[in-house]
Amino acid sequence: MKNQNDRVTLVRDLLPREDVIKAIERTGGKNIPLVFHKWWGVGLEDKYEPELSEMASKYPDDMFAVFYTAPGNDKSTLPNPAYRWGYRDDYSDVARHSIGEMYELLPNWAEFDLLLADFPDPNESGNFDSVIAALPDAGDRYKLGCWWMLFHERFWTIRGMENLMLDYYDNMDRLKVLGQSLLEYYKVIVNRFAELGFDGIFTSDDLGHQSGPLMSPATFKELYLPLYREFISYVHSKGMHVFLHSCGDNTELMDFFAEAGLDVLHPIQTGCMDEAYIASEYGDKMSFLVGVDVQHLLPEGSVDEVRAGIRRLIDAFYRSEGGLLLAAGNGIMPDTPLGNIEAMLEEVSLYKYTNPGDS
User: Fold this and answer.
1) Using the 8-state DSSP alphabet, how is residue 331 labeled?
2) Could you give the residue ranges of the DSSP H alpha helices within the chain?
3) Residue ranges of the chain with pLDDT lower than 70?
4) Cα distance between residue 178 and residue 188, in whole Å
5) CA-CA distance, 32 to 59, in Å (whole number)?
6) CB neighbours (10 Å) of residue 35?
7) pLDDT value of position 29
8) Can you name the residues that pair with 200 across neighbouring β-strands?
9) Strands ordered across the beta sheet of 142-146
10) Residues 6 or more apart from 296 whose CB is under 8 A from it?
11) Bridge partners, 63 (sequence order)
């Protein structure tokens, strides 16, 4: 067996970068790449360390994923205080949202020009230091450059969700301007990952609730589809793939994702989306970073149920030409038994690797 980073003997070989690309592009990659399968939710490490790290180190990370230091919301994440999405020095008199954890960064559209004039600098000194420092760990693996929050999620962090729902009807033109400003910012971030030799971009927009999208398909088509199309086209022009995380039921948006040219969608949330339908209808249009259910299967199932559930999930999406990658659906919760986590890691690592002809 090969060693990952020359430290730990893995349960199977790392997949070569070329095999990961084949899986993403559906050009003959029979093996299933793994990334974000060791996605630890808040409190999990506190409960299980050091056993968790020792156990998980045996299972391969076929892709190298790293986040740049994105701007803060109302406070900077770097020494420069202007490196944040807000524009005020003091938000104490502004309403909070997201269970009181975040300020409405743009409480009044009358101050829109102030926000645009104080946009963070994508070339901010130090925001790629952690990426550069981590690059030696990448080895020859596929490299995935990451940040959270693309368009919809960034809109609601700036405006608050309730305001945003009204803006879809009352301030669509302003949202389009804000979207273009975000897009120009992201293009620079994409350039910087490309210059460092990255193969893909992973970002997020939680567009769905449990039974449908958070906006009408007509709203998505008017506002988000042009932004997605231009963003994805730009990433492709730099020779990279686009991975999108979007929780909830995105079934009504799938045609738009395909039209925009999305390469990989995560997680196809269990209980929200019909996995067999998505695999059948869209498996020739995009690939899937399928997420193992962290809401019910992992915390509530027995070890045997976890193994069986993951095998059913893999069988639903597996194609010999590729198109399937595997991850956790979201952060694995601390009420998940450690034995279930190991069963999950073993199944996603070995099931089709050792039995590629199984169905």
Assistant:
1) P
2) 17-25, 44-48, 51-56, 112-117, 129-134, 152-159, 161-170, 172-195, 217-219, 225-237, 254-260, 275-282, 297-300, 303-317, 338-354
3) 1-7, 354-359
4) 16
5) 13
6) 26
7) 75
8) 144, 241
9) 63-67, 142-146, 200-204, 241-245, 264-266, 287-292, 324-328
10) 270, 271
11) 142
State the amino acid at position 341 in one-letter form.
I
Contact of 265 with 286, CB cutoff 8 Å: yes
Which pTM value belongs to this model?
0.95
**For 220, which DSSP code?**
I
- Token pair 């506002």 is found at 223
For helices 275-282 and 303-317, what crossing angle results, to 10°?
Answer: 20
What is the separation, in whole angstroms, between the first and last Cα of the chain?
A: 26
Chain length of the chain: 359
* DSSP secondary structure letters along 47-62: HHTTHHHHHHTTS---
Q: In which residue are the tokens 């659906």 written?
A: 329
pLDDT for the residue 7: 62
